[in-house]
Amino acid sequence: IDEEGECSLDDGGSCEAQKNGSRRRQPKCADKEEECGTWAKAGECTNNPNYMLVNCPISCDSCPEPLDLPEEILDLLDRVSNYGPYQRVEGVDSEKTIDVVRKTVAYMENEIYGEDASHELSEEILEDARGVALINQLETNRAAIGECEANKAYMKVKCAPSCQTCDMIDIDNRCPPLDESVRPGLLPGELNSMFERIVETAPGNQTGEVEIASGMTNYTVHVHSRPEPQIEKGQQPIISKAVDKEQPPWVITFENFLTEDECTHMIEQGRKAEYERSEDVGEVQADGSYDSVRSTGRTSENAWCSFRDGCRNDTIVELVHDRIAKVTGIGANHSEDFQILKYEPGQFYRQHHDYIEHQRDRRCGPRVLTFFLYLSDVEEGGATNFPKLGIAVKPKVGRALLWPSVLNSEPRNKDGRTDHEAQDVIAGVKYGANAWIHLHDYQAAQEEGCT
Ligand SMILES: O=C(O)CCC(=O)C(=O)O
Ligand SMILES: [Fe+2]
């Protein structure tokens, strides 16, 4: 402390503490395992921070700076360290954040680890509450600014301790089974009748004048593959798996499904949401979600057109979702957010199927249809090829491609014949968009973290 009574040296706060006359102590910061040092040397602090920063803070050099804080808060921070890494609480929301920390610690000590705790969460899930959903700075801050309510699906699982929702980490608690009385997007037999109706009613396929309904375009439909109608000696179409397997699946394209302006607008929306390297579905996590993994079979970039970036509720984007819903007869709530794709020369997506097995038994149900939109012309390459069907569709601005991932007789089950690939773009840039349509309400399932 200098002559004017001010602290002239930056000594990490010790002088300030002396000056204010407050007592100073460091939160108890200790390694909890003997192997901490060895693990830290092996790089585990960066490879496995969820575990290491909680259990080996000394070896990871993550002990907090000496703090000039009241005893009650220091004590609180020590108790937090039983469940997550040390945190700094600072900034404009620090009062609210400290409140969240108080509630969180009490919740963990009593309702989760207390002697009278009545939950039935497994060890694995509790581990997850400390790992994936550990109490960290970011999550308490988010909880403090009301994110537990505003961003429910994510927060209740990924920030469960701070939102006091650890029971929600268990997918069985979070996602009760779907009400059997809810009508699925397709009943057995409706896949064929849907495609037949789409072909028959395409405005561009009509002879004579047609009125284009509001929000719709004057598209024409081309059939690349279809099952021959199998009509019982009377009138009813035969709905059977045997017939499904004998007959080729539907693949149709739409010309002028989108206007050029709509295509440009969607590409721009993708830019706002930011194109990033595309990923595939990875491994199941303790909370029942699946992580995403980079794969060598898919080298494009994509952007999700979600509410988060104001994309899904963009006027044109909504118009396109509604157009697809009118054509398929399946509500836009059954559709995932558009995944807007960008392929530069040399980029591709190797042979795969869009059906995701684990979703068959989830609230959203499986993907039943892919409505694929071509948003740009491509100079050379970039066709969507169906190797098992001998069909290749070239990109063209405004064109759309529709195919099923499931069987007409069993809309929950995969039709393995609609494997496809995005061939290498050779010259130009290809933009496209996937709308994956599910058997059930995908948007509702997504909001609950149940996909
Ligand atoms: O880009 C294409 O033509 C198809 C893309 C595709 O199959 C996918 O994203 O699942
Ligand atoms: Fe695909």
Provide an overview of this structure:
One of its GO terms (molecular function) is procollagen-proline 4-dioxygenase activity. It contains 17 helices and 16 strands. The protein is of the alpha+beta class and 451 residues long. The chain has three domains: 25 residues, no CATH class; 149 residues, no CATH class; 258 residues, q2cbj1_9rhob like domain (Jelly Rolls, Sandwich). Strands 1-2-13-9-16-7-6-3 form an eight-stranded antiparallel beta sheet, with helices on one face. The protein has a four-stranded antiparallel beta sheet with strand order 8-14-11-12, with no helix packed on it. Helix 5 packs across helix 6 and helix 6 crosses helix 8. The N and C termini lie far apart (60 Å). The protein binds 2-oxoglutaric acid (AKG) and fe (ii) ion (FE2). Fe (ii) ion binds next to loops. 2-oxoglutaric acid binds next to strand 14 and strand 16.
Number of DSSP helical runs: 17
* Major β-sheet annotation: 8 strands, antiparallel
- Taken together, the total number of domains comes to 3
| Low-confidence regions | none
Radius of gyration: 28 Å
Ligand types: 2-oxoglutaric acid, fe (ii) ion
So what's the overall shape?
elongated
β-strand amount: 15-25%
- CATH fold field value of the largest domain: Jelly Rolls
Structural class: alpha+beta
Could you tell me the mean pLDDT?
89
**CATH 2nd-level architecture of the largest domain:** Sandwich
Strand order of the largest sheet: 1-2-13-9-16-7-6-3
Count of β-strands: 16
Q: Cα distance, first to last residue?
A: 60 Å
Under CATH at level 1, the class of the largest domain stands as Mainly Beta
CATH superfamily of the largest domain: q2cbj1_9rhob like domain
Question: What is the helical fraction, as a range of percent?
Answer: 25-40%
